[in-house]
């Protein structure tokens, strides 16, 4: 039986139309679907089993295997516990909406797999037919008639030929004496000549019709190509689902609304193309989150450039790979402002050779001082580039240079690429209008709000209902456990009575989504009141039915971004009477409440906005919500009204530990939030001259009415400064770099894993795979000989480092074997010697996109490095341990090189404890950052390889200090780690900052089986100057890292 891959529902629709009367449609999620199947098998009715996943119910196995048997004169088949009669008229069809399913070999041999996915050529032909039917109706009518006539003529010729052959084969004796045969031949000849003349005439007409159709091919080609951009978006978010039917509607709307140009076909074609891509952009953007809109514009831009043969594929590949590469061929120039990552990217651009990239690295080095000016410029895209290079480059080429030299300005460079091809409109999507979306809706298509944390559409829907006169006809159901039947009743009642039904939080009822899908499919114009509307709200969820998303009208809803918008929302929603009555028992109490209320709102906005700065803000991006703020407001009012003295300690605890802190799971994030609250719940906030930041822009306004606070907020800068949240100015660079990298990585993940990569000289993907995997294999050393190491470094009570070494080598050997075997298997799969499994596809995809495969990550130490950098880092770690094996315990330890750093730290403490015969749990670490290298100290160990994030190390003063502009990380010198008894702590009595050490810049990790976080290493005490307190560095988000991302 056929199993059809059918993400665009083309097969599904075809089967439904072909078997309209008797077709039985079932799903594996339906209760008692087997009874319907048994009935259809006995009665000989066709069955469509739709929306299957990657596994099938074992109940179906006899049916798939056609395991029929005879019982007397009857043909029978066994399904589960039932034996039923089998009708030979029975037909079975299976469809899946999964675009790239992975079926087991057992399933594959039992079914006939058919791919019904839309292909570029097939879709192009459909688009051309629609367009010509609208623009040249007579031409398209002729073409369709010609298709029919041509088929009829050819069938008649075939019939005549078959008749002649039949007569000749049956002729007896002399065929010249067969009068019937002679007459038939004469008649056939005349008929054949007439038909051939008609066919020749048809072919002439067909050529003329085709010439007219060819005029419109460019529009159809572009439209077809853009569909696949839309279709791939579901890989970004599961809610980004769009049907082919929806796409057709936009296409037809663009034809109807494009500017009409009399007798100028080229202008009309351009108008059609512009109108279609504009409508597609606008309609799609309503259903995209803000974070994905620019990425979508970039994908549309690249696809348009590709269709117009304006896109250099090697340059595009390098951009999406963020110019990822291996080790540069030329040594890096001595300019301190040029990072290793920037030089590696410049070296990758140099490999492109052609045009402005010819000798690019050498030219860059020769003009290094001029490039410093570009690096220092506030607007590097508008600065003067050496040798007039900026003017000679295309926007895409300029974006590549900016990515390499000033990564934080990549987004403006990409915007320039988009604007140059598509126009400025594609950088500013039209603002969302619920009224407009409602006008586009229908009773049979649900309106779906795709939510982000903190967004609630109910107020907007109720306001719209009042305008539409439906405020008395709204039913709202919040889905959750046991709410399914109530929702079903609401839909049934609403569709008959013409009500609005709102089902909130659909993502919380995944088991009921199958029922929702069936109910939505049963909505037909004939059986639904015209005023009926079904509103659905949901967070992104893979459980949400694809067909509902494809057929519905999707709208994303996000709370306003930015400090100013956040504060405005808090005060604009405040009722005047409540604000006036709060703490009105005395003027002092009311003054304190309003000051601290503003401080609380600022704190709420701050902790939300810190999420935009990545790990500098929070290790884990928490979803702080409006109810958190509201409960704090209630408690603030209660505490102030019930106490004469302000209980600052209690207020801080309830806010930072209970209300907001209840969702904070990371210990260092908890330290941060309890520190931040002290800036707002403090006696100083009551003073009018108290400021929240050094620039004095942000403060609690003087005592006044509600409007005065709103007026102050409206006067705040639109573009917030990181200092408002306690962060360094460089945090803006981090946020912009993270945004750019996320955009490029997402866009890269949507690209087909074929074609040539940057600098690959146009080689096929198979050639790139083989070459890269062979290079990686060649660089891999053999696993360590653990038996020989065990003989040289036996288990020794007085030397725990021997055990540490043995354990580390076992871990690295396991990783090495997995990396080697997967690379070997990828090479075999490319050559067709083994099956390309899902795991091997992951490894192959990583090789082509320079991403470390997830298969390797499961066996690896934490790392965020791209593939080639990861391979280089792994090689450096293996060389460190090889040197240890060959030369003995090293005098200084590369802390970053350990797979499991905690085992090394514990081993050092064990050595000290055993030497002095002390309990290990009585020991703690002291730290001393060295001015010069020290080897083999009497106590403890010397480590190196740490970087500081959010600050820098000031070697002259021996303290941490503010980061230099545009310098995000600073290397820390060697550190002497000294064990000591906790009762005899000899820590430097200067002020210190307790800095966490993480393995990667992501900072967050998971709890491993050993009880340690997979990312957190330990806390190190670093000296700080008197100029700043530890609180300052906590708000800065300062931490140490064992490795950088690249």
Automatic annotation (TrEMBL):
Cellular component (GO) terms are: axoneme; dynein complex; microtubule
The keyword Nucleotide-binding appears for this protein: yes
Q: What is the lineage of its organism?
A: Eukaryota, Sar, Alveolata, Dinophyceae, Gonyaulacales
Q: Which Pfam families match?
A: AAA_9, AAA_lid_11, Dynein_C, Dynein_heavy
Dynein heavy chain region D6 P-loop domain boundaries:
443-556
State what protein this is by name.
Dynein heavy chain
Question: What are the protein's GO molecular function terms?
Answer: ATP binding; dynein intermediate chain binding; dynein light intermediate chain binding; minus-end-directed microtubule motor activity
Domain named Dynein heavy chain AAA lid is located at: 593-731
According to the entry, every stretch annotated as the Dynein heavy chain ATP-binding dynein motor region domain falls at 1-195
């Amino acid at each position: 039986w056929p199993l059809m891959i059918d993400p665009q529902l083309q097969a599904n629709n075809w089967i439904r139309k072909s078997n309209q009367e008797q077709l039985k449609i079932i799903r594996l999620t339906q209760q008692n679907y087997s009874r319907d199947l048994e009935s259809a098998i006995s009665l000989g009715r066709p069955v469509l089993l739709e929306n299957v996943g990657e596994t099938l119910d074992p109940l179906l196995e006899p049916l798939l295997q056609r395991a029929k048997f005879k019982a007397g004169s009857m043909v029978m088949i066994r399904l589960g516990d039932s034996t039923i009669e089998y009708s030979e008229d029975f037909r079975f069809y299976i469809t899946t909406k999964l675009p790239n399913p992975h079926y087991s070999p057992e399933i594959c041999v039992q079914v006939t797999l058919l791919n019904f996915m839309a292909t570029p050529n097939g879709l192009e032909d459909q688009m051309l037919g629609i367009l010509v039917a609208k623009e040249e109706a007579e031409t398209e009518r002729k073409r369709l008639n010609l298709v029919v006539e041509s088929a009829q003529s050819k069938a008649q010729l075939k019939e005549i030929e078959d008749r002649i052959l039949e007569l000749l084969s049956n002729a007896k004796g002399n065929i010249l004496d067969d009068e019937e045969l002679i007459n038939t031949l004469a008649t056939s000849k005349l008929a054949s000549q007439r038909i051939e003349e008609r066919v020749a005439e048809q072919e002439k007409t067909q050529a003329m019709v085709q010439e007219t159709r060819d005029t419109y091919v460019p529009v159809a080609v572009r439209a077809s190509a853009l569909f696949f951009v839309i279709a791939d978006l579901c890989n970004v978010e599961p809610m980004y689902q769009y049907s082919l039917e929806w796409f057709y509607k936009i296409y037809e709307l663009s034809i109807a609304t494009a500017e009409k140009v009399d007798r100028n076909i080229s202008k009309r074609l351009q108008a059609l193309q512009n109108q279609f891509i504009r409508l597609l952009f606008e309609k799609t953007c309503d259903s995209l989150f803000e974070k994905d809109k620019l990425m979508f514009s970039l994908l549309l831009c690249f696809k348009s450039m590709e269709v117009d043969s304006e896109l250099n594929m090697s340059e595009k590949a390098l951009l999406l790979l963020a110019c990822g590469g291996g080790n540069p061929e030329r040594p890096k120039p001595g300019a301190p402002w040029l990072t290793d990552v920037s030089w590696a990217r410049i070296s990758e651009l140099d490999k492109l050779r052609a045009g402005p990239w010819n000798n690019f690295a050498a030219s860059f080095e020769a003009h290094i001082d001029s490039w410093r000016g570009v690096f220092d410029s506030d607007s590097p895209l508008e600065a003067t580039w050496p040798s007039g290079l900026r003017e000679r480059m295309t926007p895409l080429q300029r974006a590549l240079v900016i990515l390499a030299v000033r990564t934080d300005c990549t987004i403006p460079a990409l915007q320039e690429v988009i604007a140059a091809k598509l126009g400025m409109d594609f950088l500013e999507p039209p603002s969302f209008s619920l009224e407009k979306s409602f006008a586009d809706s229908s009773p049979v298509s649900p309106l779906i709000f795709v939510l982000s944390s903190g967004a609630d559409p109910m107020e907007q829907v109720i306001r719209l209902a009042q305008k539409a006169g439906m405020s008395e006809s709204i039913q709202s159901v919040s889905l959750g456990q046991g709410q399914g039947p109530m929702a079903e009743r609401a839909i049934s009642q609403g569709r008959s009575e013409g009500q609005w039904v709102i089902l909130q939080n659909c993502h919380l009822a995944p088991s009921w989504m199958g029922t929702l899908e069936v109910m939505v499919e049963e909505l037909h114009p004939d059986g639904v009141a015209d005023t009926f509307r079904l509103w659905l709200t949901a967070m992104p969820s893979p459980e949400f039915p694809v067909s509902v998303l494809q057929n519905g009208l999707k709208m994303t809803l996000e709370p306003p971004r930015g400090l100013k918008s956040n504060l405005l929302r808090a005060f604009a929603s405040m009722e005047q009477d409540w604000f006036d009555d709060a703490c009105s028992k005395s003027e002092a109490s009311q003054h304190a409440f309003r000051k601290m209320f503003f401080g609380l709102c600022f704190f709420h906005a701050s902790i939300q906005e810190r999420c935009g700065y990545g790990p500098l803000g929070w290790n884990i991006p928490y979803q702080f919500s409006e109810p958190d703020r509201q409960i704090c407001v209630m408690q603030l009012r209660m505490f102030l009204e019930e106490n004469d003295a302000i209980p600052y300690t209690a207020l801080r605890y309830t806010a930072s530990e209970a209300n907001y802190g209840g969702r904070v799971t990371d210990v260092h994030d908890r330290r941060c939030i309890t520190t931040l609250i002290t800036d707002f719940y403090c006696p100083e906030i009551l003073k009018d001259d108290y400021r929240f930041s050094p620039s004095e822009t942000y403060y609690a306004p003087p005592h006044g009415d509600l409007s005065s606070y709103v007026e102050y907020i409206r006067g705040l800068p639109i573009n917030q400064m990181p200092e408002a949240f306690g962060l360094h100015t460089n945090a803006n660079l981090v946020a912009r770099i993270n945004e750019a990298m996320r955009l490029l990585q997402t866009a890269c993940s949507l690209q087909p894993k074929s074609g040539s990569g940057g600098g690959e000289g146009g080689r096929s993907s198979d050639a790139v795979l083989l070459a890269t995997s062979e290079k990686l294999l060649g660089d891999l050393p053999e696993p360590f000989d653990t038996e020989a190491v065990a003989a040289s470094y036996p288990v020794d009570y007085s030397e725990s480092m021997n055990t540490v070494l043995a354990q580390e080598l076992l871990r690295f050997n396991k990783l090495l074997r997995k990396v080697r075997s997967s690379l070997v298997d990828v090479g075999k799969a490319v050559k067709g010697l083994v099956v390309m499994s899902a795991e091997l596809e992951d490894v192959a995809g990583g090789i082509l996109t320079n991403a470390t495969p997830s298969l390797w990550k499961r066996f690896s130490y934490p790392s965020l490095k791209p593939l080639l950098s990861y391979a280089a880092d792994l090689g450096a770690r293996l060389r460190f341990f090889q040197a240890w094996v060959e030369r003995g315990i090293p005098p200084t330890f590369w802390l970053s090189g350990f797979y499991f750093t905690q085992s090394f730290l514990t081993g050092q403490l064990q050595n000290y404890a055993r030497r002095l015969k002390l309990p290990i749990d009585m020991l703690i670490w002291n730290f001393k950052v060295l001015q010069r290298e020290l080897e083999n100290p009497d106590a403890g160990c010397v480590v190196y390889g740490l970087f500081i994030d959010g600050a820098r190390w000031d070697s002259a003063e021996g303290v941490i200090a503010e980061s230099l502009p545009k310098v995000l990380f600073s290397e820390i010198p060697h550190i002497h780690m000294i064990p000591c008894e906790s009762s005899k702590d000899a820590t430097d009595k200067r002020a210190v900052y307790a800095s966490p050490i993480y393995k990667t810049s992501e900072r967050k990790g998971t709890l491993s089986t050993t009880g340690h976080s997979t990312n957190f290493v330990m806390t190190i005490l670093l000296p700080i100057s008197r100029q700043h307190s530890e609180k300052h560095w906590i708000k800065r988000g300062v931490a140490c890292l064992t490795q950088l991302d690249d």
